Amino acid sequence: MDWVKRRKLSAVDQLLTVLAISRITLLWSLYILKSTFSMVPNFEVAIPSTRLTNLVWIISNHFNIWLATILSIFYFLKIGNFSNSIFYYLRWRFKKVVLVALLVSLVLLFIDIFVTNIHINIWKDEFKANVSYSYKLKIFLQVSRLLVVTNTMFACVPFVVSMIMFFLLIFSLWKNLKMMKHIAQSSQNASTTAHINALKTVVAFLLLYIIFILSLFAHVWSYDFEEKKYFIFFCLVGMFALPSLHSYILILGNSKLRQISLLVLSLLK
């Protein structure tokens, strides 16, 4: 618990702390999203909560993927091995890189919220124009699916950045292994281990996020199925897997987080 003694968090500790908060918020927003869909028969309750539900969902999902992407950038800059002036400049200016990434993410977030509000306003006008229940249900599902597609499109930017970091780390690892013949075995083993651990974390995030998006799409489209009870259950499991399992992987891959987790578990006993 060196950060407690120094009363100062390192850059990666700050990043992991904020990421943990975003994961908790994402779990909460997923629960709200599930509750909103369970209100589909009662539009008088579902409609007023839709704007707030989508706002919480967009913000939590947005920062969840962007913070994980910034973590991937951190691994690349701190562990990657490239003899390039731009790479060294970015490594020494990591905080500025994070700041720029956050500013870009905020711009995309505001655009996402703006587009979402336009869709919701159109949806509310459609509801006022027609009082038929079947029509309301049809519009509700159409708009819900449209919002999921819109939010996913905005999430493509950080996802692509994470993919690029993944391939650059693989290339750096390949260079590392190639240089093992000329540099001390012990130092190369340590560097190789760091590369592999970083790759595991990035791969886990990419795979879990793909499962998350597929499960979210399947859940929104599941209302077209007659026998949907068990299908929705598996969709929810897939959606909750990202914030839960990836957090567990981060804990296993970080010695400080492992120590804190063991301390918390010992206090709970």
From TrEMBL:
<dbReference type="Pfam" id="PF05296">
    <property type="entry name" value="TAS2R"/>
</dbReference>
<dbReference type="GO" id="GO:0033038">
    <property type="term" value="F:bitter taste receptor activity"/>
</dbReference>
<keyword id="KW-0919">Taste</keyword>
<dbReference type="GO" id="GO:0016020">
    <property type="term" value="C:membrane"/>
</dbReference>
<feature type="transmembrane region" description="Helical">
    <location>
        <begin position="152"/>
        <end position="174"/>
    </location>
</feature>
<comment type="similarity">
    <text>Belongs to the G-protein coupled receptor T2R family.</text>
</comment>
<keyword id="KW-0472">Membrane</keyword>
<feature type="transmembrane region" description="Helical">
    <location>
        <begin position="12"/>
        <end position="33"/>
    </location>
</feature>
<keyword id="KW-0807">Transducer</keyword>
<keyword id="KW-0675">Receptor</keyword>
<feature type="transmembrane region" description="Helical">
    <location>
        <begin position="97"/>
        <end position="120"/>
    </location>
</feature>
<keyword id="KW-0812">Transmembrane</keyword>
<keyword id="KW-0297">G-protein coupled receptor</keyword>
<keyword id="KW-0716">Sensory transduction</keyword>
<feature type="transmembrane region" description="Helical">
    <location>
        <begin position="195"/>
        <end position="218"/>
    </location>
</feature>
<feature type="transmembrane region" description="Helical">
    <location>
        <begin position="230"/>
        <end position="251"/>
    </location>
</feature>
<keyword id="KW-0325">Glycoprotein</keyword>
<dbReference type="GO" id="GO:0004930">
    <property type="term" value="F:G protein-coupled receptor activity"/>
</dbReference>
<keyword id="KW-1133">Transmembrane helix</keyword>
<feature type="transmembrane region" description="Helical">
    <location>
        <begin position="55"/>
        <end position="77"/>
    </location>
</feature>
<dbReference type="InterPro" id="IPR007960">
    <property type="entry name" value="TAS2R"/>
</dbReference>
<protein>
    <recommendedName>
        <fullName>Taste receptor type 2</fullName>
    </recommendedName>
</protein>
